[in-house]
Amino acid sequence: MINDVIADAKDRMDKALEALRHELMSIRTGRANPALVEHLSIDYYGTPTSLQQLATISIPEAQQILIRPYNRGDLAAIEKAIAKSDLGLTPSNDGQSIRLLLPALNEERRRELTRLVGKRGEEARVAIRNVRRDANRDLAELEKESLISEDERKRAEEKIQEVTGLHTKRIDEMVKDKDAEIMTV
Predict the structure, then answer these.
(1) The domain containing residue 60 runs over which residues?
(2) Are 90 and 83 in contact (CB under 8 A)?
(3) In a shared domain, residues 165 and 115
(4) Are 124 and 93 members of one domain?
(5) What is the CATH number of the domain that holds 8?
(6) What pLDDT sits at residue 103?
(7) Is 64 helix (H, G, I), strand (E, B) or coil?
(8) What pLDDT score was predicted for residue 155?
(9) Is 102 helix (H, G, I), strand (E, B) or coil?
(10) Which of 80, 61, 136, 110 is nearest to 69 (CA)?
(11) How far is CA 180 from CA 30, 46, 97, in A?
C-alpha cells in the first residue's frame, strides 16, 4: 500500500516534469525549433488537427522553419492558424510550402521570455507540491484506518519528500537551462 502511494506520487510528478519540458520546448529562443509549431491546431475540415499530422516540419536554417503540407490544399488553413497563433511570426507562402523566419530576439523580449519560463517553472513546482500533499494525505488516511503504523507513515512521508526534492531540483535545472538558452545571443 505504501509503495503504491509513493509510486503514484512519483508517476504524477514525472508527468508534471514532462508537461513542463513540453511547455519549455514551445517557448521561442531565437533558434528555429519544430516544437514551436508542431502542436498548432489547424482547422482540418472542421476538425482541430495538430500541424505535425498535416505537414512535415523542417529547419533548413538556424532562423527558419519550413512547413510542407502533405496536401497543398491545406496551405491556407495552416497559414491562417499560424497567423492567429501567439507566435508572432508571419508565414510566407510560396504555393508549395510555408516559411517562417524567426527574427532575432531583442533584450526586452528575452527578459519577457525568461519571466515566462520562471512562471512555468513555478507552476510545475506547485503541481509537484500538490502531488506531495495528496500523497501525504493518502498516507494519513491509511494510518487512520490502522492499515499502517505511525512510523511507517513517517518513513513513507520522508521518501515522498525525497522524491519531491529530486523533482523540484530537476525543475530548477530545466528552468536555468532554458533561461541560459534564451539569453544566449
Answers:
(1) 34-101
(2) yes
(3) yes
(4) no
(5) 1.10.132.20
(6) 78
(7) strand
(8) 93
(9) coil
(10) 80
(11) 12, 40, 32
